[in-house]
Amino acid sequence: MLLGLLGILVGLGLLIWLSYRGWSVLLLAPAAALVAAAAAGEPLLAHWTETFMGGAAKFLAQFFPLFLLGALFGKLMDDSGSVETIARFITDKLGTARAILAVSLAGAIVTYGGVSLFVAFFVLVPMAQNLFKAADIPHRLVPAAVALGTMTFTMSALPGTPALQNAIPMPFFGTTPFAAPGLGVIAAAIMLGFGLWWLNRAVGTAHRAGEGNGKHEPVDVAV
Question: What distance in Å separates the CA atoms of residue 57 and residue 70, rounded to the nearest whole number?
Answer without folding.
Answer: 20
